[in-house]
Amino acid sequence: MLQRTLLIQIHFVDKPSVSVRGQTLKYFLSEISQIMSKPEIPRKSIYRLSIYQRCLQKLLENQLETVSSEALAKAAGVKSTQLRKDLTYFGQFGTRGLGYNVKALSSVLNEVLGITSYQPVILVGVGNLGAALLQYGGFHKEGFEISAAFDIAPNPGRFGPNVKTPILEQAKMVNFIQTNGVRMAILAVPNQVAQSVVNDMVEAGVQAILNFSPTVLQVPENVTVNNVDLALELENLSYFVR
Questions:
Q1: Do 83 and 22 lie in a common domain?
Q2: pLDDT at residue number 116
Q3: Is the pLDDT of residue 231 over 50?
Q4: What pLDDT, on a 0 to 100 scale, did the predictor assign at position 117?
Q5: Secondary structure of 165-225 in HEC code, one letter for each residue
Q6: CA atoms within 13 A on the CB side of 89
Q7: Over the stretch 36-59, which tens digit does the pLDDT of each residue have?
Q8: Are 5 and 22 in contact (CB under 8 A)?
């Protein structure tokens, strides 16, 4: 290991140069690597965090205080090495020989996933699929609330008193997004109009879209789209039916 004193000038954009003394070369380069680059987190890892959180919630309901990586991975349907790798993107968790504190890890994942408070979500398209989504109770349980639904021909009377979400004319969507700071949307409109609707959403400030329309959407890089194509999922399943 090189132990001699090191003096290096690092020039940052729009910032003064920084002098560093008394560092070994190996240690200093390690520090620079951590400062200058952050690992890109795979989307599949983010997706698996939600699965881990579901498992942790069940453990909390059963009043379990700790869980091993092997047990949590088995419940989530992944290998323990994958579980540990996914979690290391966000910090060091667990104690060797004891496992993870269920409540503490669940709280961290809530923070990472941004579900510590209710997220307002809009639904656009209240046809048969949209109507089913509007009546789905799982959103609220996971920290999301459909604050409004929009359709070109809204008909709130079809749902009765059980659905309290306001169903508004689609022309009011942009103003609602901007007024209420909505950043997430569910899209369940025909594919012929999906892109046009998304363009309006994005311009108004939506940053994440759950897309049930069977089409590929064109969005800016700062907007995330998760596609749910039910027919495509069945087609994939048919491969395994022999």
A1: no
A2: 60
A3: yes
A4: 64
A5: CCEEEHHHHHHHHHHHCCCEEEECCCHHHHHHHHHHHHHHCCCEEEECCCCCCCCCCCCEE
A6: 18
A7: 344 577 878 888 888 888 899 889
A8: yes
Widest distance between CA atoms in the chain: 79
| CATH, residue 134 | 3.40.50.720
Same domain? 196 vs 97: no
DSSP string across 83-128 = HHHHHHTS----BTTTBEEHHHHHHHHHHHHT-SSPEEEEEE--SH
Coil, strand or helix at 75: helix
Q: What is the CA radius of gyration of the chain?
A: 24
In whole angstroms, give the CA distance from residue 56 to residue 103.
8
Domain assignment of residue 242, yes or no: no
Torsions phi, psi for 185 (to 5 deg): -145, 150
Let me know: does 20 contact 10? Beta carbons within 8 Å: yes
Residues 24, 69: one domain?
no
- Residue range 165-179: average pLDDT? 94
Average pLDDT over residues 76-83: 90
